[in-house]
Amino acid sequence: xxxxxxxxxxxxxxxxxxxxxxxxxxxxxxxxxxxxxxxxxxxxxxxxxxxxxxxxxxxxxxx
Length: 63
Known about the structure:
- It is a single chain.
- By secondary structure, the chain is mainly alpha-helical.
- Helix content is 76%, strand content 0%.
- The protein has helices at 2-24, 38-62.
- The protein is elongated.
């Protein structure tokens, strides 16, 4: 269970970093797309960051 929690923490940090970098300069994290804007960054990185954060909170109550 500890390994899963660590993996969730790493995923959360990666998506949070992607969100922050993408809000500063979207081309850094959306290099694979033809159009880059901050709204797309929030769709691809912000929503998963929020979902992973809620999963992280729910796992904290299980342990």
